[in-house]
Amino acid sequence: MDKNELYSKVEAQYDDLKDMAMKIWEYAETAHQEVQSSRIQKEYLKKLGFEMKEVPNMPTAFMAEYGKGYPVIGLLGEYDALPGLSQKIQTTQEPLVEGANGHGCGHNLLGTGCVGAVAAIKEAMDAEGLAGTIRYYGCPAEEQLVGKPLMAKEGVFDDLDIALSWHPANHNEVVNFSSLAVNSIKFRFRGVTSHAAMAPHLGRSALDAVEIMNVGANYLREHVEDSVRIHYCITNGGAVPNSVPADAEVWYMVRAPKRAQVEEVTKRIYKVAEGAAMMTETTVTHELISGCYDMIINKDLAEVFNKNLHEVGGPVFSEEDYRFAKAIVEQLPGATQASVMGSYYLRPEQWEGKILIEDVIENDNWKEVMPGTFDHGDVSHIAPFSYLFLTGIPVGVAGHTWPVTAGAGTEMGTKSMICAGKIMAGTVYDLMKDTTLVEKAKESFVKDTGGKKYVSAFNE
Question: pLDDT tens digit string along 178-199?
Fold first, then answer.
C-alpha cells in the first residue's frame, strides 16, 4: 500500500467521520460528562475490530487498540466541550440554547480526526502485515487540564513508544514550542460561625483566612521568578454578611515554564495557606484539581510529522468556506488578529491580509514557551511526543469563543479534520515501516528528559 492509498482510506471514511464529528458537536458534553461522545467513538472502532480497554476511575476515558508488539504508537484524542459557548452554525452570535455548552475549541473534530487515522492504519497493517500496536486514546476533560494527567496517573501511557496529537488552529504547523506547567489547587478554610453583630468575638472567619491568604500570595509574587504566574478566584466567600463565614474556598493556579518551578512555588503557597489559617484560628485543607507538566516536543519525531504535513499539505478551502470565515474576521475588534497570531509566534507577513491560511508554516521556536498549558505535557514526559496544528479557524480568531463553535460545525472544520487524519496516518505508517525513526526519537527523548522518570503530580 503506498501512502496515497493510505490517504484514500481516510477519505473513504468522510461521511462516517463527518457524522461522528457533528453528533459530538451536538452533544457538546463538558469535562467528565462525555458519555455519548466517547461511546460513539468506541462503537465505531469496536466494529472495525479494535479491542476496547477502560481506564480505571475514568468512565468517559478509553483506549482502542489494534495489533501487537513494537512499536506502540498512541494517538491522543479529545471530545469535551466548553460551558456557555452554545452557538448556531452562522456568522452572527446566537446560541442554540442560551447558556448551554459548545465546542469552542473544536474537540469534536480533534478526536474524530484521530479515529479516522487509526482506522486507516489498521487497514494498512492488515494489508502489509505490519508489526506494531496502534492505540487510540479517548481523553476526556482536556479543558480542565486534567484528563491526560489522570490517565497518566493510572499508567495507561507507560508502554508507549510514540505519542501524537493535533488541534484545529489558525494555521498549519508542526508545533516546536513548549507550554507552561501548572498546578490547579482549591484551598478550603473552616472556622466557626457566629452572629457578626451580637457575638463576633465567638466567630472564626474562614473568609478572613481566604483574604489573608490572598494578601500573602500577592506579596509572594515579588519573590518568584518573572516567568511564574499565580492567579486565583474566590469560589466561596460565605452566604450572608451578618454571619461570620464558617466555610470559604479559594482556587489557585500556579504556572511556570518547568514542572520543578511549579512544585517549588506550590510548596510556598501551601505555607501561605497554613499561615493564614494560623492567624485566623481556622483550619485549611487543599485539593489538587490538576497538575500538568510542561510540554516537550520531540525534534526527531517532529521532523517525521513535518515531512508528512508537507506531503499532504494543509486543508484546501472552498469559496463558501472563505465567505464564512471572512464574515467572522470582519467582526474582530482592533488589534485582535495581531494579538492572537502573535501568541503562536507568527510574523505579520505570514498572516496579514489572509482569511484562512492554506500554506504550511515553519518557524524556529524551539526556545519559546507558549503562555498557556496543554495537558499533553504529562504524556510528553512519558514518551516522545509531537503535536500538529491545522487550519480550521479563521485568521485572528481566538479559541474558546463562539466563532470557533460555529466553525467546528462547518465544512471548514471537517476539511481540517480529514487532513489531520491523513497526516497522522502517514506519520504512523512511516514509523511502523522504519522503526529506526522510533529509536532515534526515543534516544533524543532520554536527552530531553535527562532520563528522569515521570512522576504524576497526583502522587507527589
Answer: 999 999 999 999 999 999 999 9
Model pTM score: 0.95
Q: What residues have CB less than 8 Å from 101, skipping those under 6 apart?
A: 28, 29, 30, 81, 82, 83, 84, 85, 86
Mean pLDDT, the chain, whole residue set: 97
262: CB partners within 8 A, 6+ apart:
181, 182, 183, 254, 255, 256, 291
Q: Which three cell numbers stand for residue 115?
A: 479515529
Between CA 299 and CA 304 the distance in angstroms is 9
Distance of alpha carbon 124 from alpha carbon 428, whole angstroms: 10
Residue 460 confidence (pLDDT) above 80: no
- From residue 135, give the alpha-carbon distance in Å to each of 39, 62, 106, 146, 212: 16, 10, 22, 20, 48
Give percent of the chain with pLDDT exceeding 90.
98
**Spatial CA neighbour of 189 closest among 209, 212, 218:** 209
Q: Rounded CA gap, 375 and 290, in Å?
A: 9
Alpha carbon of residue 130 to chain centroid: 31
Altogether, the residues listed in the chain come to a count of 460
